[in-house]
Amino acid sequence: MNNEMFCYQCSQTVNAEGCKIAGVCGKNETLARLQDNLIFSIKGIAAYKYQMEEFGKKDEEIDAFITKALYSTLTNVNFDIQSFIDMAIESGQMNIKAMAGLKEAHIENYGQPEPAVVEKGSSKGHGILVTGHDLKVLEELLKQTEGKGINIYTHSEMLIAHGYPELRKYEHLKGQLGGPWFDQKEIFAKYNIPILVTTNCGLIPLDSYKDRIYTSGIAQLPDVPHIDDYDFSQIIEQALSLPELEDEEKTTYTTGFGADTVLGLADKIKELVLAGKIKHFFVMGGCDLPNPKMSYYTDFAKQLPEDTVILSVGCGKYRFNDLDLGDIEGIPRHIDLGQCNDAIVGAEILTALTEVFDMGLNDLPVTFVLSWMEQKAVSILWSLLSLGLTNIHIGPVLPAWVDETILNVLVENFDLKLISNPEDDMKEILG
Fold first, then answer.
1. How far, in Å, CA of 425 to CA of 428, rounded?
2. Spatial distance between the Cα atoms of 29 and 70, rounded to a whole number of angstroms
3. pTM here?
4. Residue 100 exposed, middle or buried by CB count within 10 Å (0-12, 13-18, 19+)
5. What 3-state class would DSSP assign to 370?
6. What is the rounded distance in angstroms from the CA atom of residue 375 to the CA atom of residue 386?
7. Percentage of residues in the chain with pLDDT exceeding 70?
8. In terms of Cα–Cα distance, which of 94, 59, 99 is closest to 259?
């Protein structure tokens, strides 16, 4: 990590190329990094806000914050470092509102999530594969394909759909193909069926499947048909024209643990904690990425003592959600809360547990061990920090904009910790 800034947003930059050490305007590297951080956090808020608004939900307070925050990053507007730290905390609060609004919309439309065992692999018949986060797009596709002999499969972030009763009621919502977002080139090439990309995490398609991939909503890819009116007749026609998939041997994922389900187990969890049968909870997940260092999370999960429980959220769980970790007297040792759109569930559960155990948030036997990749992860981190949570362990690869300057801000103000290796980190956490 370097300690330089880079700013090229105005015409007074050094040599008209960009300020690399300090801004001609007077902005220093810490302020520059905090402004970058604020913009990334706003991008994350926008992702949740966009999907929330698909269901007709608005929030004027979030709108006003985004306007104020973006304006504050303009040249010669705000040079006060503490007020950008304060605004970053506020961005976390606004992100909680956006995530809560989206979750509320999902529950209103699709019911409270319930635990579901999801088959991974193809079944005999025609098919369409849906990736991304947009449950409304998936619902409309399910409606239009009902009774047509087409199996609908989920990929990556769409796994959580299987936990919602009003989506699971469609018998042709069959299962999952593949795992994290970055396996899509392999998976999309392997299964000769149309692919529908919703929201983010799409990649430039390979020629091997470029003639059968479509986008919808906010997502768009070059030279790929875009569907923005929920008319899926073209993709349905192609699905029926392609050969049927064969029945594969299946493995399973378990997902769909919503706040109601987990908090319904609160008395049992408290009993097991007080009896010393559950010693610690780990919130694990975040983003996944194709980097060998991500094996940290697999190794960490494998090495955890049998008296610990994992609560997972986001694609990071694909590093360990195929492990059979068993249960502790009926409480699963891996409780999958869903994807990044469901991160609010973790916050709701933690808040409720402070009341169950009559403890402060940072006194609970809970440790966050998170991976970090893109902008939504930034907004989620600030959401956790805005709740007052400290001692978050994060890694293994930080975004390039996180240099020692911004890292020191996070460490000094919020006791953020970088992960090292599973053995040492586990020893430090569990003692």
1. 5
2. 18
3. 0.94
4. middle
5. strand
6. 17
7. 99
8. 99
